[in-house]
Amino acid sequence: MTSTGEGPSATGSSSISANTSQISLADQFARSTEEEILIALDEMRTDNERLEKETIILSRYLKRVDPKDIQTQIKGLAEASPVQQDVVRVHKRRSRSRTGSTERLLKLTTEQKCDIAQREHDELREEINKFKHETEKVLDTYKATREEAEIRQGEIKKSSYEFNRDIVLGAKNPRTGKVIAERVSRYFEDKMKTRKALIEKLRLKNSTLKVQKKKLQMALKQKEDMGEVLHEVDFKQLRIENNQYLEKIDERNQELLKLKHSSGNTLQVLNTYKKKLNHLTMESNRLKKEIAQREELLSKIDEETESVEKERVKAESVNVNLRRQLQDYIVPEVIDYVQVRADLYDLTKTLKTWERKVDIAQMELQKYQKQWMLMREHSRSVNPWANMEQHAAL
Fold it and tell me: Do the beta carbons of residue 311 and residue 365 sit within 8 Å?
């Protein structure tokens, strides 16, 4: 290292050496060919890039090192290693080189460069590990938040489905079509009881975990008081046990995911069957209404048939009486004969009218019977169970 008494002589010698080096380089470039100059230029560019990288690494190292540590290293230079002495010397030379450009150029040795590069490499690795650990924490937090959101979404869907099933569809009054308030209040009371039971369960679990935490803290404090120190073997054993527990947790999580998947499939199948059941129930209600309407129509047809049958019996009795009278008839006088013929003509006309009415009634009866048979066959083909229930009721 150069002392302060070297002043003018060192400056003059350095300027002379710089001038001579510039003259030698100029002569060398003048004697060299273009290809050699390009090759030398590439080598200089490569050296400049290397020096730039080394300068960046050294500047990072110097920014990270505390100046107080440098002063401490200067005080203990006699006991320091050669590498540390060289680094301190470099610091001094850098501060002295700032005062002027006349001092000679200082360079780090290979050992110093390796030492600085190794320290920077260790620092970068520690920063990477720290950043990796922080990102893993953030990733675990996001995963836990996502799982909580998925669980919450599933609970909301389940609650919505149960509310629609039990309140929106199941709590309607069939007569008014409005939701029954008692069922709604009972539904929310049951939900509140379930929530309270869950809160109580979580509270007990939390208190149990607090007790376990307190026990572990007391055990750790006892170990610290007794002077028990964990060795590297203990840490390795704990790391192995931790890995085993993590594998078991992963297996349990996989099983839980499978159970959630199967539960979702089961819920989908259940919803499908419930939709089918609702559709069949609506179809059954429609068929019951249609059967009631047709039974009412059939009763009306039966009443009309009975009334027509009574009229037909009356007409037949009248016809029989008239035929009997005709058989027992004795030819009266001409005037009586004319009068009787007129009465007979009126009665014959009335008889034809009644016979025509009977024919019309029979045609109507046959028509209604055909309609009834068609309706019965259609109802049997649509819902055979309803016919069995009807026969059972009859």
Answer: no
Lookup: tokens for 181:
């308030």
Residue 137 reports pLDDT greater than 70? yes
Q: Please indicate, yes or no, whether the overall pTM of this predicted structure exceeds 0.85.
A: no
The letter for the amino acid at 59 is S
Taking the C-alpha atoms of residue 271 and residue 227, their distance in angstroms, rounded to an integer, is: 63
Residue located via tokens 């199941």: 170
Q: Can you tell me which residue has the tokens 């009859």? A: 394
CA-based max dimension of the chain: 189
Question: Given a cut of 60, is residue 19 above it in pLDDT?
Answer: no
> How large is the angle between the packed helices 232-327 and 334-382, nearest 10 degrees?
170
Going 251 to 257 to 262 to 263, the CA torsion angle's sign is positive
CB 77 within 8 A of CB 88: yes
DSSP string for residues in 79-108: TS-HHHHHHHHHHHHHHHHTT-S-SPPP--
Distance, in Å, from the CA atom of 56 to the CA atom of 50, rounded to the nearest integer, reads 10
Helix, strand, coil in percent for the chain, rounding step 5 = 90, 0, 10
The size of the chain, in residues, is 394
- 99 φ/ψ angles, rounded to the nearest 5 degrees: -75, -25
pLDDT tens across 246-297, in order? Answer: 888 888 888 888 888 888 888 888 888 888 888 888 998 999 999 999 999 9
Contact 116, 83 (CB under 8 A): no
Structure-block tokens of residue 119: 């320290």
Give, to the nearest 10 degrees, the angle between helix 232-327 and helix 384-393: 60
List, as one string, the DSSP characters of 123-187: HHHHHHHHHHHHHHHHHHHHHHHHHHHHHHHHHHHHHHHHHIIIIIITTB-TTT--B-HHHHHHH
